[in-house]
Amino acid sequence: MSTPLPSHRRWWVLAVVSLTQLVVVLDGTIVNIALPQAQESLGLTDSQRQWVITAYALAFGALLLLGGRVADYWGRKRTFIVGMVGFALASAYGGFAQTGVDLIVARGLQGAFAALLAPAALALLTVTFPTGKDRNIAFAVFGTVAGAGASVGLVLGGVLTEFLDWRWCLLVNVVFVAVGLVGAFAVLAESRADGDNRYDILGAVTVTLGLGSLVYGFSLAETGWGSPLTITFLAGGVALLVLFVWIETRTAQPLLPLRIVTNRMRGGAFLIQAIAGSVMIGSTLYLTFHLQIVMQMSALQAGLASLPLPVATMVVAPLAVRLLPRIGPRPLMTVGPLIVAGSLWYLSFITVTGSYVVQVLPALIVMGAGMALVFVPLQNVALSGVAPDDAGAASAVANSAMQIGGSIGLSIFTAVYVVALGSHTAAEPTALAGAYSATFIAAAIGMLVAAVLAVTMIREPASELLPLPEDEPQPAHAG
């Protein structure tokens, strides 16, 4: 059930949940720039430094589907608020960390509460803007924030690290959450799935362990794809996810109704979202390395140098909003990845002596414009036709596609980087530039795949996907 909101309050809902999305997405990258200082301050080993990133992705990716169903059953506003408060407390814990273990635990807690927060926020947006032109605008804004968040994290991380301290890359979340909580209590209305809802405990355990094993396996793959431990975790993750799908076909109230992902258009959108997420996270990370290590920029300079990407996304997004109802999602979601692929190909020509203005800036502007064409329709298409009772679960899949895609993509890009670097060392700028170039080419190939998926899987118009009837037959309960 849900409480209808006056139309003028819906835009305040959009502002609140978009702020939340910004916090969740930028927190995946804001710490990256601060890691060198954090490592020196806390005496982190290289292994612990890696876990500062992995712990967030692991907890976030593993718990997202469960978080989505908690939002559906317990209440989306209530879940949103609990997730916000928990995220703030975890951020404060990390900001005041005294040891490497403290920081890693804090990042894991951030990911766990983000797994409650993110699907609840997107589900609130879905039920607040069910149809029409306003829905297109709302999802365009939300998608733009999601697309630009990784780059915003790099910029903000550079500013905070340069002028304050690395700890503020975590403590700043408390400020964001305080603003978000005020907005949540003021404008959000409670909504939840109707009926006698019961949690799919077996499904929750299976998918959490499966996604966790997969994310951890890919994090291990960054240092060796052929190691027995990597293979064990990746194979175990796949096996558990196959078991999860089987369980969901035999459960009356599944954690993930398979109708959400088996629809061709939504399935294509989820796949494109995974690729786009991996490219945004991976390409911005390796570009930051090039700016700081090869071009010798400070953290602040590297952050500001990344700024044209989100700015271009925000400038082009309104144009994409106007085009979406006229030409449909498929042209945008096809042309956008092709533009991004072209920008990444251009970026692959970086050299040690090349200037930022010639070799980097044009690529960032074009990439930002292309990403706007991708992210504006993406969230809308991914959630089109989803029944209100499934809003949290579908939102969790959308977020999970971005998070798991980012983890997998980053592992693949790292493997490409290692192979391209070969026997050279990180002290050789020419070799580094060549290795970074290889990762940009790999990312460009990924975006070409996304364009093919858009052509073959995205139907139009999006309005063809209508909510499933509430009396749709449900599978019999196991046993």
Automatic annotation (TrEMBL):
Q: Which UniProt keywords apply?
A: Cell membrane, Membrane, Transmembrane, Transmembrane helix, Transport
Q: Where are the transmembrane segments?
A: 12-31, 51-68, 80-98, 104-125, 137-160, 166-189, 201-219, 225-247, 268-287, 299-320, 332-350, 356-376, 433-458
The secretion signal range is none
Pfam families cross-referenced by the UniProt entry:
MFS_1
Q: Which CDD domains match?
A: MFS_MMR_MDR_like
Just give the chief location class: membrane
Q: Where is the Major facilitator superfamily (MFS) profile domain?
A: 13-462
Q: What is this protein called?
A: MFS transporter
